[in-house]
Amino acid sequence: MQKDIKRLSLILLFAPFTLWILLLVVLPHIGMVILSLREKVAPRVYEFGFGNYLEFLHEPIYWNTLIRTGSMSLLVTALALIIGFPIAYYIAKIAGPRARGGLFLLCLIPLWVSDLIRSFGWILLLRETGVISSFLVWTGLIGTPVEFLYNDAAVIVGLVYTVILFMIVPLVSTLDGMDNSMIEAGYNLGGNGFTVLRRIIIPYAMPGIVAGCIVTFMLTAGSYLTPILLGGKNSSWFTEQIYNQFITRFNWEGGAAFGMLLLLFTSLVIWLGLKLSGQTLANTVAKS
Amino acid sequence: MHIKTTMAGLLAATMLAGVGSAQAETLRLLTWGSYAPDVLVQKFEEEYPDIDVEVTFSNNEEMIAKLRATGGAGFDLAQPSHDRIYAAQLEYDIYKPLDLSKINTDVLEAKLLAGVKENTTIDGEVYAVPHQWGTSGLMAEKTMAPDFSSWADLCDPQYAGKTSMRLKRTILLGTAFSMGENPFEAYSDLEKYQDILDKVADKLIECKANIKAYWKGGDDLSAMMLSGEIVASETWDSTAYKLFDQNENIVFIPPKEGALAWIDTFALPRKAKADDAAYKWINFVLRPENVTLMSGSTGAIAAVQGGKDLLPEDKKAAVNAAFTDADIDNLKFFANIPPGVEDMEGKTLEKIKAATGG
């Protein structure tokens, strides 16, 4: 009797999670795979085949966009790490307990407003008649207004701003667990600041770094609004291609294939990253 | 909103109490932003207290995608443009035929009604009737770009970095007309149409250096135009009329090749559940007093007889400032999009977007 109740409560506890995974993650993906393997031959007539994937290979525009999206996402991830690491180190090791809460809050505040509002904020700042350009003209640094919006740099700034929190949180939690005496020992043994950073702090923080990089990379590669709104006439993003296939071209089969390709591509990049850094999923994302 | 929830609560309570009462019908509209202004919805609900109106705002492409996802269920009345009925019905079977006897077709502008009927008849059944029409063309700030008159002027180096367009099919068609082609006639010969598209793509890629940015919606276009960051753009007429209210130097310009005219229609989704309510809504919004309210909100002209005279005064002024009778005669109505064309155009647009022109 007791055992049955235990088992029942276990099943009940896991049911929402299992249902969520099955109904909202596994089933839709199976649907997408099936959809992506349907080739349209005539109105309302479909055949099984790999045509949608071949279409991707034959058209340089598509894989160029995918590679562009991937490399820009890597750049955003690297920038987020370089900017986020000192902040995380300060929060975890240097700031007092009271300041820590406040600093964390400051990092969180940008996420209280939606993606769309944040992008519009950047548009107001960066546009030709916007705040920054007007200010520079007013100070006399530049003679005529300059357009900061509608280029790749604007997209990268906007994306780094959005994802940096997801880099800081795992870093803080790993650095937090690090004993200060390890750093002291490093200095006592004659290391300078750089050696201590390179040989003690970074190796210790590696799981946090990898976890942060995985999350930021996935978020960036899959983002839609920021690249669309801040990007210029040449900035294509792969998610935009997927949207176009589904909505503008009514080509759900092609869109589904693109979706699967994006998933495979990002998974491949992460697998490579894990191999190169010698980490595993179990001791990075799963740990933090 | 609160009233609605209270009503729903009351309704649920009465049902629980077991009192048999007439169940309220829901009319689920799938339409364009501003095509169901609150005043009209309230007025309709007062006149038909047993009908509850729910509105979803969308655009042509998303309307078709939504209906395709459910096989035509989930909505009771949709309002795609007249060129988005025929091919979508052939490919995805998402609409059902209209019963014209239930619609007060006498009030509709005969020419527009005939045109829409012709474009949306499949196997002898009519799938749509017209509601609002308007045009796509150009707008310019008169003092900065006084001679703006053609689609090709968007690519004039004189305005380098000061023009904008939306990277959608309208600009492909407009550019084709400005190159002396007639894309609508080429719809019947897709190979020829592909040739035209290739030429248009070359032209627009070359033009990229001249464009400041592609606009994506009425809001960013308005911001660029009002701030003076651009002096001319491809536009919807309704957006230009709204800007005319704020700055009288910004006018809508029907291109000399002819402004492209669209007609938004009424169509029934295949699995619609409230056809009677839908017909009631159609006849309701076609009444003259409601036409003025509707046009005030949409900025477009109703497809009823004397639709232009029923515009609110400010819109009438903007239309008269933009169109002469000759311009109206020169309108190019969007032709039916045959299956396959959307794919070709989509690919051309991708090619233009990906090209590194400037």
Automatic annotation (TrEMBL), chain A:
Q: What is this protein called?
A: Spermidine/putrescine transport system permease protein
Q: Which subcellular locations apply to this protein?
A: Cell membrane
Keyword hit for Transmembrane: yes
Source species of the chain: Roseibium denhamense
Keywords (A to Z) from UniProt: Cell membrane, Membrane, Transmembrane, Transmembrane helix, Transport
Recorded topology in the membrane: Multi-pass membrane protein
Q: Transmembrane segments in this chain: where? A: 12-37, 72-91, 103-125, 153-172, 208-230, 250-274
CDD domains named in the record: TM_PBP2 (cd06261)
Family label: Belongs to the binding-protein-dependent transport system permease family. CysTW subfamily.
The ABC transmembrane type-1 domain covers: 66-273
* PANTHER family reported for this sequence: INNER MEMBRANE ABC TRANSPORTER PERMEASE PROTEIN YDCU-RELATED (PTHR42929:SF1), INNER MEMBRANE ABC TRANSPORTER PERMEASE PROTEIN YDCU-RELATED-RELATED (PTHR42929)
**What Pfam family is a match for this entry?**
BPD_transp_1
Q: Which domain of life is it from?
A: Bacteria
Q: Extract the InterPro entries matched here.
A: MetI-like, MetI-like_sf
Q: What is its main location?
A: membrane
Automatic annotation (TrEMBL), chain B:
**Compartments, record wording:** Periplasm
Carries keyword Ribosomal protein?
Answer: no
PANTHER family in UniProt? SPERMIDINE/PUTRESCINE-BINDING PERIPLASMIC PROTEIN, SPERMIDINE_PUTRESCINE-BINDING PERIPLASMIC PROTEIN
Query: Which keywords has UniProt assigned to this entry?
Result: Periplasm, Signal, Transport
Pfam hit, one: SBP_bac_8
Keyword Zinc appears in the UniProt entry: no
Protein name as catalogued: Spermidine/putrescine transport system substrate-binding protein
How far does the signal peptide extend, from start to end residue? 1-24
